[in-house]
Amino acid sequence: MLAPQGPHDLHAPISRTQRYKKITKPLLERQRRARINRCLDELKELVVTALQTEGENVSKLEKADILELTVRHLHHLQQESSGPEENCQNPKGRFEAGFSQCASEACHFLLSLPGLDPQISRRIVDHLGQCADGLRRPTPPPQQQPMWRPW
């Protein structure tokens, strides 16, 4: 009787394609999934931290929840950053927008610090607000002196 021939023959050499399908492809797929899961875990930590600072309670997040919250947060950041900058073509406008955004982030940070004296943080926040208001006030055009004439 002859030995069986075909893919079930244990003594036949394995082609590159068969080896790729049997060994390499599953290994690459496991590595890809591990990389995705590592990134999702990192995203989860970042999203949970961001949501907790905003006062939301997050206990258990599925992968789809993590991705959905990340997309929502990125849209929110994009809307915040694109608002004032779209209208600012001149350097003064860009400076005002940048200062306002920086002051806003500084205020948010100061108000969230647990050990800082509330009176000090309030004074700093008020000062930043006054500076931002001063930037928004229109500056009067420079006074032009009448040209001096000798006659």
From TrEMBL:
This is BHLH domain-containing protein. Residues 20-77 form the BHLH domain. Residues 132-151 are annotated as: Disordered. Residues 95-128 form the Orange domain. Signal peptide: none annotated. It comes from Cloeon dipterum. Keywords: DNA-binding, Nucleus, Transcription, Transcription regulation. The lineage of its organism: Eukaryota, Metazoa, Ecdysozoa, Arthropoda, Hexapoda. One of its GO terms (biological process) is regulation of DNA-templated transcription. The keyword DNA-binding applies. Its main location: nucleus. One of its GO terms (molecular function) is protein dimerization activity. It is found in: Nucleus. InterPro entries: bHLH_dom, HES_HEY, HLH_DNA-bd_sf, Orange_dom. GO terms for cellular component: nucleus.
